[in-house]
Specification:
8 helices, 179 residues, five-stranded parallel β-sheet, alpha/beta
Length: 179
């Protein structure tokens, strides 16, 4: 089966990454979660590790035990990199080639297809800077952005665009990319 790198960002929707990981593992895929430090304020490494059946990487301090840095090893083994609950910050780092954490460093080393599933306040998503960053990412080979959903109640209490697409769609898009 495939090796799925599940990048998890610091959005309230990060908890849904656990369900994505669980479903992919049940289908027989190897799942590795690489989290931004802020993601761990929303979902615990123990949850992601238990459901993915692999250690969670969130810091360069986690990269012990091998002479090859884990973020490089995972990037080389990836069949797909799926960024779930992609924040405006992570998308900006990716668009501009910044690597302040293990996830964005892995992104720069990655050559597998990249699926980006945004989740953020609608005003943040529609801001010209975020839209420009999304455009830059879409212009790259093997990059797709799925979402955000057009309408719904957001965590901030606002109604509108910005919600993470449903978990079923995330899994379907990952499987589509792998086929």
């Amino acid at each position: 089966m495939a090796t799925v790198i599940l990048g998890v960002c610091g959005s309230i929707a990060a908890y849904k990454a656990a369900d994505v990981a669980s479903r992919l593992v049940k289908m027989g895929h190897e799942v590795h979660c690489v989290c931004t430090p802020t993601a761990l304020r929303f979902v615990s490494p123990l949850t992601l590790m238990t459901l993915s059946r692999n250690p969670v990487i969130s810091s360069f301090d986690d990269e012990t035990g091998s002479w090859v840095p884990v973020h490089i090893d995972l990037a080389q083994r990836a069949s797909v990199l799926a960024i779930v609950a992609a924040t405006a910050n992570t998308m900006a780092c990716m668009a501009h080639g910044l690597a302040p954490n293990a996830l964005t460093s892995l992104y720069l080393a990655n050559r597998a297809p990249v699926l980006i599933f945004p989740a953020m306040n609608g005003n943040m998503w529609n801001h010209p800077a975020t839209q420009k960053n999304a455009s830059v990412l879409l212009g790259r080979e093997k990059h797709r952005i799925v979402g955000p959903d057009d309408a719904g109640m957001l965590a901030c209490g606002a109604e509108g665009q910005g919600r993470l697409v449903p978990v079923e769609r995330i899994v379907d898009e990952i499987l589509r990319e792998l086929s």
